Amino acid sequence: MTALLSIAGVSKRFRGLVAVDRVSCEVEKGEIFAVIGPNGAGKTTLFSTIAGSLEPTEGEIRFLGERIDGLRPDEVCRRGVARTFQIVRPFPALTVEDNIMVGALLRTADTAKAAATAQDVMRRLDLFDKRDREAKSLTLPDRKRLEVARALATAPQLLLLDEVMAGLRPTETDRMVAILRELNAQGLTILLIEHVMRAVMALANRVLVLHHGAAIALGTPEVVTREPAVVQSYLGAEAL
Amino acid sequence: MTRLFAGTPTHGLVLLVLLLAALVAAPLIANDYLLTILILILYFAYAGQAWNIMMGFAGQLSLGHALYVGLGAYTASALYVHFGVAPWLGLLVAVPVAMLAGAVIGFLAFRFGVAGVYFAILTIAFAEFARIGFDHISYVGGSAGFFLPVAQYTQNDLWNLRGRPVMFYYVILALAALAFMLCHLLLRSRMGYFWQAIREDEEAARALGIDTFRYKMYAVVISAGMTAVAGVFFAFFYNNLFPEQVFHISRSIELILAPIIGGVGTLFGPIVGAFLLTGLSEAVTETLHALGFEIPGAKQVFYGICLLVVVMALPDGIWPWLARRLGLERRS
Amino acid sequence: MPLDIYLNVAVSGLLTGLVYGLMALGLSVIFGVVRVVNFAHGEMMTIAMYIAIVLFSAFKLDPLVMMVPIAGVLFALGYVMQAGLINPFISRPEHSQFMLLVAVAIIMVNVLLLIFGPDARSVQTSYAFDSFAFGPIIVDATKVYAACAAIVVSAALFTFFKFSSVGKAIRACADNYTGALVVGLDVKRLYALTFGLGAACVGAAGSMLAIIIDVTPPLGPQYTLLAFVIVITGGLGSMPGALLGGVLIGMTEALAGLLFAPSAKSMFAFAILVLVLLFRPQGIVGKRA
Q1: Which 3 state secondary structure label does DSSP give B33?
Q2: Number of folded domains in chain C?
Q3: In this predicted model, what pLDDT tens digit does every residue of A78-89 receive, in sequence order?
Q4: Considering only CB atoms, which residues of chain C are within 8 Å of chain B?
Q5: Is residue C115 part of a domain?
Q6: pTM of the model
Q7: Which of A42, B87, B89, B280 could pair with A20 in a Cys bridge, judged by C-beta atoms 3.0 to 4.6 Å apart?
Q8: Is position B10 within any domain?
Q9: What range defines the domain where residue C168 resides?
């Protein structure tokens, strides 16, 4: 069975700097796949190559069997890969509902149908009460959920989440984890970059660890977090 | 029609109807001079709406919109003077010409990543190009000017747009009303949402699957085409065209004053702005006149001060503030 | 046409171009540091030109001699503009800042129109009709003096930015706003200082230009555009770039005026602008952002 997303020997070089170093892995349909590693390990760069905002220097990225490396970000999204940003980027002057409508309008030109999708997404992400609020007036946890909601409205098969837990308090983290679990149960494949280990352990089926751009471990969370190399470079002895 | 205004509070609709009624009835009580002022107001309201599509909806600052006015004006006039083509048919050529110009500018800018202030400067450059270039096109009069034959004012010839101010008034009123409805529809359409997304955050818009290049092109081309219609009106109302004036950057700036003062990105902004600006400036000019001053530049200083005050105190324009006062707190 | 004429025109363009370069230098400094697009740049220069003219007609004072005081007046104007009007706008969206300066520009041009009327004014110095001959090349004395003054002022500015502590502080603000704040620089005051310096450049350039060309109020917007063309061509934020751009545009204008119709000369400046914006937006000297 072909994987949903396959990354084969992907590298990204910025002049002299090797940000991503021949990373390969496959994400199966229906799983939650986490990418962890210290800062500067190349996680967001890897994401960007998948999402299309950067072009890999070498390697191939395939989604549903077709190559997507080198495509523009909007083309990648249309194929079914949606992403969120590490630093959230809501449309400040638009309401929560309008923000999500923009996402929903990718799949339909009918504003009524898009509105229905938006309503549905808002309920699932617990944003319905705030639908008429301007995005710029939202708190950070709400903005994070809006970011996810907007991406979700594009009806993706794969959702790329870039540090979606950052800045959230433990209760909010748990809430987000619950939402993501539910979305996954409904068939959404999730690829997430995360520092918050609590979330990684709770969510991920498999974890990829990056260090200096290269993959140093790949496996279930329990296995990976015990590997000496991972402990050495990232987690620290206290994590054990 | 009812779906068009769904979501607008009832008293808002009432006000709108009253305004429309007042405008339709105006010629009954206004003399020709006042009518000319109203024509000017509605002209700026119309042109302002057209410019607003590019700036207010799609977030692209154009400071060279006089280019499209001029292209529309010259194309339609040339067809009329040289071939006797009526302006309503001339439109069919003038609008595509302007749209093509817009497409060229948009394509060059967006393909090469020219954005923000650089884009604004690019638009200025193209308008200046036209200003100097048209000085040398003798087919349309060059720098000496291009003149439309002025007929007797006894009959109103709607087809050829020759006639009394009243006729022009209703034409521009219809145009302004149509522009308003068109913008309303556009704003609520998928394109309107995509434009606003691009305006707010182009990269985030791309991440949601929006082909930003395509939609920015739509904005530029539609805005250019609409503005060309204003140009055709301009030509047939004033009956003379000079490249130095028509394409001048002051015209471009005049066009944008009303929407900026009224409220960029709103539907009523350009209208409110046009009324306020033109109305007040005429009042100022009249007062100075009455006091015995005939000062060139006084009107412009007034514009400048208005613009300054609005930009500093009401950065979103007057309409949003007014709307809050009138309890019309909705997305228009 | 004989080579002599081309050479003469080119040199004449080069000299005028140096003055243009100084004007553009002011804009480059302002944009490079404060990141504000000074749409009133040409208008400020026109103010300086009118001051020079008034001083000349009232007191027979040579504009080049009055260059320093005029630059001082413009410095004050620029400082006040930045401190009073623009500083609160730093965080506002680009088009807001732009509109603010458009408004200021409109007011400036039309106040000048109100005061001086639309007719052209000029300064006829005692050496207005003198010229120097270098072999086959004959140049107007006014242009030579103006160009020399432009070089001197530019050199002074370079030295200031490179070697003085205030100059370095300003460059720090340009490089890294937050960093500058963190090390305790009074960024707002430095911004005002920078705008003042940019305005002073324009003031000096205005005094120089006053002896070369006639002044009318609409010159303001024309020179604003020209300044932008030069700065973008040379490279935004690059001081040598501004001078280089000025010379390039000055020569292009002069030669285009010779080869084609005189009125077409600005078309070439704009053509260059479009090409630069499309193919080398960082300008000739600038670095890719």
Answers
A1: helix
A2: 1
A3: 999 999 998 999
A4: 37, 85, 92, 94-96, 98-100, 102-107, 109-111, 113-114, 117-118, 217, 221, 225, 228-229, 232, 261, 263-264, 266-267, 270-271, 273-274, 277-279, 281
A5: yes
A6: 0.87
A7: A42
A8: no
A9: 3-220
